[in-house]
């Protein structure tokens, strides 16, 4: 026996359909906000205000004529910095880290130590995957570099 579909059946069906859609969207939205906050730099506004300082540091670094070559493996990082005359640059105090492209909680801080003229090394276990080597000098001669790395 076939029952007749009345108006309130259609209304209940539509309300249930849209309730399911809204519930699924709310779950997805909650999970998205909890797992990725959407910003790469924690103080991006301040970084934008200080952008002229960044440009001045980059210009001063270019005038020095330094060249940096890095080698990254599963056992650590080796960075060689030479000046315009090809001599190793020594005595730099550097901040360095391996930045994970998707989750800053997985970043690996590095302690680069002098290991000869212009050579700085950090022994650290690095998991396979994609990384960005970020090196800078907080004080002294300006030096910044970023290099994309893929370890297998």
Task: Please describe what this structure looks like.
It is a single chain. This protein is of the alpha+beta class. It has 2 domains: 1-37; 65-151, Immunoglobulin-like, CATH 2.60.40.1930. It has 3 helices and 8 strands. A hairpin with an 8-residue loop joins strand 3 and strand 4.
Q: Helicity range of the residues?
A: 25-40%
The fraction of residues in strands falls at: 25-35%
Individual helix count:
3
Can you identify the CATH superfamily of the largest domain?
A: Macroglobulin (MG2) domain
Q: In terms of per-residue confidence, which ranges show pLDDT below 50 for 5 or more consecutive residues? A: none
Separation of termini?
Answer: 65 Å
What summary fits the major beta sheet? 4 strands, antiparallel
Mean pLDDT: 87
Spatial sequence of strands, sheet with the most strands: 1-2-6-5
Task: Note the run of SSEs as H and E.
Answer: HHHEEEEEEEE
- By DSSP, the count of extended strands is 8
The Rg value, from CA coordinates, equals 26 Å
Level-1 CATH class name of the largest domain = Mainly Beta
């Amino acid at each position: 026996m076939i029952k007749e579909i009345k108006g309130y059946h259609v209304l209940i069906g539509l309300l249930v359909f849209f309730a399911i859609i809204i519930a699924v969207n709310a779950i997805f939205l909650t999970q998205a906000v909890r797992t990725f906050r959407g910003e790469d730099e924690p103080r991006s506004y301040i970084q934008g205000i200080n952008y002229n300082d960044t440009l001045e540091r980059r210009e001063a670094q270019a005038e020095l004529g330094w060249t940096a070559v890095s080698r990254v493996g599963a056992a650590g990082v080796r960075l060689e910095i030479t000046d315009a005359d090809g001599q190793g640059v020594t005595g730099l105090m550097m901040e360095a880290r391996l930045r994970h492209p998707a989750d800053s909680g997985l970043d690996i801080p590095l302690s680069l130590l002098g290991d000869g003229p212009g050579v700085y090394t950090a022994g650290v276990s690095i998991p396979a995957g994609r990384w960005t080597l970020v090196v800078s000098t907080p004080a002294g001669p300006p030096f910044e570099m970023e290099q994309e790395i893929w370890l297998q």
